[in-house]
Amino acid sequence: MSADRRAALRAWPVAQQAQAVKERIYASFTGLAILATLLLGGEHQSASGAFLTLLAGIGGISIAGFVADVIAHQVTHEGSPESQQFRTMLRIAGGAFASASIPLLALAIAWVGLITARTGIQIGLGLYFFTLTGVVLLAARRTRLGWRHQLVALVSLTTLAVIVIVILVLAH
Questions:
Q1: Each residue's pLDDT tens digit, 135-170
Q2: What are the tens digits of pLDDT across the range 20-63?
Q3: What are phi and psi of 91, to 5 degrees?
Q4: Which of 40, 117, 154, 165 is most enclosed, with most CB atoms within 10 A?
Q5: Arithmetic mean of pLDDT, 105-115
């Protein structure tokens, strides 16, 4: 995430920051599971097929998050979101979708033939893996606990993340 993007995110209220980070994490888990499934599928996957599959999956989860926010707002506030709230919901959904930009770029490079589809998928997997690893490390570090408790938090979060990934891959 760029310094400008981080600064803009910090300007949001904490609840919106948490929502934006949460949506990016959902999208990253989804993207990782999609690419892992493509890689482990054993069949030859075209770069265009992988690109479109990831685009549809991340687009779907981003739109679903946006729709869920609108519905949740209507249920809890008994009315539609105001324009500023609506724009914030769109920005959050856009951020979730943007989490796939570099993996999609790797697949686009494969699509034009500069690298193989398998390499593009592996690059995307690596990016998602390192993104999620970084978030888990940051989450453990931000607890402000002693190093032992941070280690427990890190191991716990990593274990839960692996369980999520396995379940998502098995579901596909």
A1: 888 877 777 788 888 888 788 888 888 888 888 778
A2: 888 888 898 899 889 988 988 866 789 999 999 999 999 999 99
A3: -60, -40
A4: 117
A5: 96
Q: Do the beta carbons of residue 92 and residue 23 sit within 8 Å? A: yes
Q: Which residue in this structure is represented by tokens 């993104």?
A: 131
Q: Which two tokens stand for residue 131?
A: 């993104």
Q: Give, in order, the Cα–Cα distances in Å from 41 to each of 126, 165, 170.
A: 17, 15, 11
3-state secondary structure the chain: CCHHHHHHHHCCCHHHHHHHHHHHHHHHHHHHHHHHHHHHCCCCCCHHHHHHHHHHHHHHHHHHHHHHHHHHHHHHHCCCCCHHHHHHHHHHHHHHHHCCHHHHHHHHHHHCCCCCHHHHHHHHHHHHHHHHHHHHHHHHHCCCCCHHHHHHHHHHHHHHHHHHHHHHHHHC
The closest of 99, 79, 78, 87 to 32, measured between CA atoms, is: 99
CA distance 74 to 34: 31
Average per-residue pLDDT in the chain? 86
* Identity of residue 51: F
Residues 6+ apart with CB under 8 A from 89: 66, 69, 70, 73, 81
